[in-house]
User: Fold this.
Amino acid sequence: MKGTNWLAAASIFAVACAWGATFPLIKDVLRSIAPEPFIAGRFLVAGIVLLALALFRREIDRAVISPSLLLGLLVFAGYWMQTRGMLFITPSRSAFLTGIYVVMVPFADRLLRGNRVPLQAWIASLLALLGTAALINDFNRGFDARPTRGDLLTLGCAVCFALHVVYTADFTARHSPIGLAAVQVMAVGLFAVPPSLFAPRTPMTPHVAAVIVATAIVTTAIAFVALMWGQARVTATEAAVILSFEPVAASVTSILWYGEPITRSFAIGGALILAAMLVSQLRSTLSS
Assistant:
């Protein structure tokens, strides 16, 4: 790592753990509120906090608006499919399927920039495919099981997040990272408002309000600042490897809090997908 900055690595690791821990929390709160108003509330609150920070630091200008809107659209689409998908699948399953975006990044990079897909990306893709098949097909039911709506939505979420990573690498080279974050987070909240008007009306209970505020402040605004601080001190590849712990954190939290059983298909599928995420980044890490 750059100067072996273990504090920076620890901050990114804390972000991965915090993001992973939100999967069962969000799964639980979606019993009381539709995904669209939840996304709107979470990101509008976080957007206000980040905009205040960016304006205080004078890191927002007109040039940052267009790229931020594109990034915000990808984040909104990704989070919408993720939260919608979580209505049909378990939190840890959602986390592992979402984590496949790490493997998809080299292929998105090839599509958008024409860069060569390295060998480890092909190996990682094979591992991810096998892992996804293990998660989708319950070994206790046999191999004739079909992907659920939640599986397909979550894989679509992974595609959006992979595209977001590639575009972010380009935009952060030309714009302020905090400015980009502030505008795109607010954009996500605003994009979620129109569909929220058509979502089922439910009362805003203290529990739902507390979860919205907690995820907005802790796992969106504060987590993003911690991530930016950490990534400024390690390479992007090192950060990606550390963030690969997110689905593991989600799984552990889901098992301990949500009571999710540990099945053979889950253990095999999760292990293969985690291995795929690490393999997709391994060679670059060793050479950095």
The chain has twelve helices and no strands.
